[in-house]
């Protein structure tokens, strides 16, 4: 098959035709697609052990089963993205089971351990909402046909996950004691989810994701979409969050120093120290958080045991 040129690919995208496999794309397109798929796959995969840890604090067997159902969905979403990476020629076994935990590309938020049922349901309401926004954008706009079709199922399941979180947040907000615990979880998880969408547009390096139509909106636009539903939910429940809608600017704004330093061990934002730079945030992301090696280790342990038995 004749290699696809950049001109041929751009003409295909301009007439609205989907790319149906790596043979129909240029190396640059495949590289941008693989980079996007790795972030999605790692995020879905690492959510499974992170959620399972907190699900053990479920208040009933029914709520535990609901949480395990969500975990099963997340593993299925990860499988879809890794399978597509394999189709692109990526060694997925090495990617999942032999990569250093610090090299995983999931959001930093999952490196901060979820330890209670309250934190788990806030993760469903915040983190899965971020996933719904990000993957929903890809589902509607991506030019890569196989992923677009697969995301029809993923989109519905991520919507269920965030509704599960919303339902439980309403339940926990109904009594003073559980509402106080809910507020404590919101206090540290809200800004971590704001970070989830990555660097601001003026600092973002990889702009070929939009150039190739792999996604439709920028980081800042997607962050605004998340804020437009997450903040009203918290306001409805009487929970305080450092964000408000600025009618004059026509956008949601963060009302505390941001980005800011975060004490992962104490699960506390050091807002009293004032704002920091995004370079400092990047350094924290690269260093990874306290649960990184534990959670990735749970995923890799069985594979290593099997390799030793086969040796």
Q: How would the blueprint of this fold be written?
A:
Elements: H1 6-14, H2 27-55, H3 61-87, H4 92-98, H5 117-141, H6 145-172, H7 176-195, H8 208-211, H9 219-236, E1 243-246, E2 251-254, E3 262-263, E4 268-269, H10 278-287, H11 292-310
Keywords:
311 residues; two-stranded antiparallel sheet; 11 helices
Quote the average pLDDT: 95
Strand arrangement across the biggest beta sheet: 1-2
Q: Which structural class fits the helix and strand makeup? A: mainly alpha
Helix share bin: 55-70%
Describe, in plain words, how this protein is organized in 3D.
- The chain has 311 residues and is mainly alpha-helical.
- 63% of the residues lie in helices and 4% in strands.
- It has eleven helices and four strands.
- A hairpin with a 4-residue loop joins strand 3 and strand 4.
- Helix 3 (61-87) packs antiparallel against helix 6 (145-172), helix 5 runs antiparallel to helix 6 (145-172) and helix 5 (117-141) packs across helix 9.
- The longest helix is centred in the N-terminal third of the chain and has 29 residues, at 27-55.
- The model has no long low-confidence stretch (mean pLDDT 95).
